[in-house]
Amino acid sequence: MLAEALEHVVRAIVEHPDDVDVQTKELRRGRLLEVRVHPDDLGRVIGRSGRTATAIRTVIGAVAGAGGARIDFVDVDRRR
Amino acid sequence: MTDQIPAAARPAELIQRLESEGDAAADFLEELLDIVDLDGDIDLDIEGDRATVSVVGGDLLQLVGDGGRVLDALQELTRLAVLQETGERSRLMLDVAGHRAQRRTELAKQAGEAVERVRVSGEPVRMSPMNPFERKVVHDTVAAASLRSESEGAEPQRRVVVLPGT
Q: How many CB pairs under 8 A join A and B?
């Protein structure tokens, strides 16, 4: 549910929605949501001074419930 | 509010643009509510030169957050989603569970009290730090009382100062 919500939000604000991919990883210290976007969209999801990334973390954090979730943004050229 | 433009004075083009902003916002929010399994109805309106989008119903307080923190973040993302959909930068106002409406009433009351203090003392009154929406409510209330106000300081400590009459 959380990954789906995050994917919906990110897809809605990028130029290349079909390149958006969200992976959920369960780490020892909690859940990590890894968002991959098109390289041209990385600036868009991070925003000026990280403003958009903060807004995404705030909204997803609010619906994440107990434990929350960490969100990392990665562009598709990396970590492949 | 006193700054509302009467419907007849609004150009049809502006109304059409604000309506499509509202529609794009509603699409974005409806799907989000559906995914996170929250019940809410979306009311669209136009206030002055802005589209307003209100999510009402059920248990929505998690989308408001402390001091409206989550609401502000959701508004930001909704505006970006509308920009992406329509190609137009939107100043739409999002409300959830009547939070802004309630806050507006409280702020108008506080602003009215500040106006009275300024009138009695002839000295400027500095209000608490507020976000841009809240400052606008205060500025509008002060202007309606025929006094002047200005903002000072940097976000998030930016605040309204109510000034004595000229």
A: 55
A15, A56, A58, best to mutate vs chain B, most B CBs in 10 Å:
A58
In angstroms, the CA B35 to CA B28 distance is: 11
The Cα–Cα gap between B112 and B140 comes to: 11
Residues 6+ apart with CB under 8 A from B35: A1, A4, A5, A8
Give the tokens for residue B122: 């002839």
Query: pLDDT-derived band of residue A74, with 50, 70 and 90 as boundaries?
Result: confident
**Contact assessment for residue A73 and residue A35, using Cβ atoms and an 8 Å cutoff:** yes
Distances (CA, A) of B157 to A15, A50, B162: 34, 19, 16
Partner-chain contact A1 B31, CB within 8 Å: no
Mean per-residue pLDDT for A38-64?
A: 95
Which helix (H) or strand (E) is A45 found in, with range?
Answer: helix A42-46
Secondary structure element (H or E) that encloses residue B50, with its range? strand B50-56
CA B123 to chain centre: 28
Going along chain B from its start, the domains and CATH numbers come out as 7-97 (3.30.300.20), 101-163 (3.30.1370.50)
Q: pTM score, two decimals?
A: 0.84
DSSP structural state of residue B66 = G
Quote the mean pLDDT of chain B: 92
B114 Cα distance to chain centroid: 20
Report the distance separating Cα B88 and Cα B16, nearest Å: 12
SS3 assignment, position A33: strand
Alpha carbons B129 and B157: distance in angstroms, whole number: 5
